[in-house]
Design brief:
One of its GO terms (molecular function) is DNA binding. The protein is elongated and about 80 Å long. The protein has three domains: about 1-45, 434 Repressor (Amino-terminal Domain), CATH 1.10.260.40; about 65-155, Rossmann fold, CATH 3.40.50; about 160-290, 3-Layer(aba) Sandwich (Rossmann fold). It is about 40% helix and about 15% strand. It starts with 8 loop residues before the first helix and ends in an 11-residue tail after the last strand. The protein has a four-stranded parallel beta sheet with strand order 2-1-3-4, sandwiched between helices. It has a four-stranded parallel beta sheet with strand order 6-5-7-8, sandwiched between helices. The protein has helices spanning about 10-15, 20-25, 35-50, 55-60, 80-90, 105, 110-115, 165-175, 190-205, 220-230, 245-255, 290-305; strands spanning about 65-70, 95-100, 125, 145, 180-185, 210-215, 240, 265-270, 285-290, 320. By secondary structure, the chain is of the alpha/beta class. The chain contains twelve helices and ten strands. Helix 11 (about 245-255) links the parallel strand 7 (about 240) and strand 8 (about 265-270).
């Protein structure tokens, strides 16, 4: 059996024409390495497919260059963009990120603390709420708990923030809409609850009429039926949906009963899915900057590693994208 020798840091140095100390500084993200030398070293690393020996590095400096991000087990499309933002921020700071998915039982146990104490990571960022006793490590890496998902991988915290609902309702009211319908997802979903409460509060404060809240269970067919089955003499002129999928269903329901959007019915969504802008009409929606959230959370982790307190106030990651599906109310 032939054993293939792994390239070493000295091999990289020889190919790049620099000292191994300079290579080491570059791999640590030292900004004093000139751009020209950094490019030579990066090319040599790529050509040799060099991978640092993290165990040896940790033994020498008690530093691994790795951060852990802990997620609940589950499927959330938003997590892909969030993690991309975190990866980019970590890379810019000279760190690698590893994602660890844990079931609820392990999240509520000592597993996160064990990760922090393993010596494999310099810090651990948990994207869910941890029990108070598990938010710190005895003598290992720092742990930061930033609740973004609950144990079922449903968006909470900044991902369920609903303040834009008041802006949507206010804008529609300013354009003559007086009776509104809200199409929500699962009634116990954290984001659904907050958006429904914000809708009802805004309608009440602006002295508008609510045609109710329909539980659509994130099913566009139910949303289409809710609009299609409105009474013939309904006063509803605007529908605010809990996400873009339900909004698309609402548009379909309007078209099926012979209404135009936004001529007869204005429709808004939430989450700004890629197809929202390609719809006819293009869908007004609330955009959530998942990528920026990931970068902000990773930056906060780095602050804690540097001995600073976590940033308590973060700017909103949502904004309304006004498109063609909303317009002035039409008298019926």
């Amino acid at each position: 059996m032939t054993t293939v020798r792994r390239p070493t840091i000295r091999d990289v140095a020889r190919l790049a024409g620099v000292s191994h100390q300079t290579v080491s500084r570059r791999l640590r993200g030292d900004p004093t390495v000139s751009p020209m030398l950094a490019a030579h070293i990066d090319n040599a690393v790529a050509q040799l497919d060099y991978r640092p020996n993290l165990v040896a590095r940790a033994m020498r400096s008690r530093s691994t260059g790795r951060l852990a991000m802990v997620l609940p087990v589950g499927d959330a499309t938003s997590s892909l963009q969030l993690l991309s933002g975190a990866y980019e921020a970590a890379q810019a700071a000279g760190f690698a990120v590893e994602v660890v998915s844990l079931p609820a039982t392990e999240l509520h146990g000592r597993r996160v603390v064990e990760l922090a104490d393993s010596g494999l990571y310099e810090a651990v960022l948990a994207l869910t709420d941890l029990p108070p006793q598990h938010r710190r490590s005895s003598d290992g890496a720092p742990i930061v708990s930033a609740p973004v998902y609950d144990e079922h991988m449903r968006g909470i915290g900044p991902l369920s923030e609903a303040s834009r609902m008041a802006e949507l309702v206010t804008h529609l009211a300013e354009h003559g809409h007086r009776e509104l319908l809200h199409l929500t997802g699962e009634t116990d979903h954290p984001a659904s609850v907050r958006r429904r409460e914000a809708f009802e509060r805004a309608v009440r404060e602006l002295d508008l009429r609510s045609a109710g809240v329909v539980d659509c269970r994130w099913d566009p067919a139910i949303a289409a039926s809710a609009v299609r089955d409105l009474p013939r003499d309904t006063g509803v002129t605007a529908v605010l949906a809990g996400n873009d999928t339900l909004a698309a269903g609402a548009v379909r329901g309007a078209v099926e009963r012979g209404w135009s959007v936004p001529g007869d019915l204005s429709v808004t969504g939430w989450d700004t899915q890629p197809l929202s802008a390609a719809m006819l009409p293009a869908l007004t929606s609330v955009a959530i900057d998942h990528r920026r959230l990931g970068a902000d959370l990773l930056t906060e982790l780095l602050r804690v590693m540097g001995g600073d307190a976590p940033e308590m106030d973060r700017p909103s990651i949502t904004q309304i994208v006004w498109r063609e599906s909303t317009g002035p109310a039409r008298d019926r």
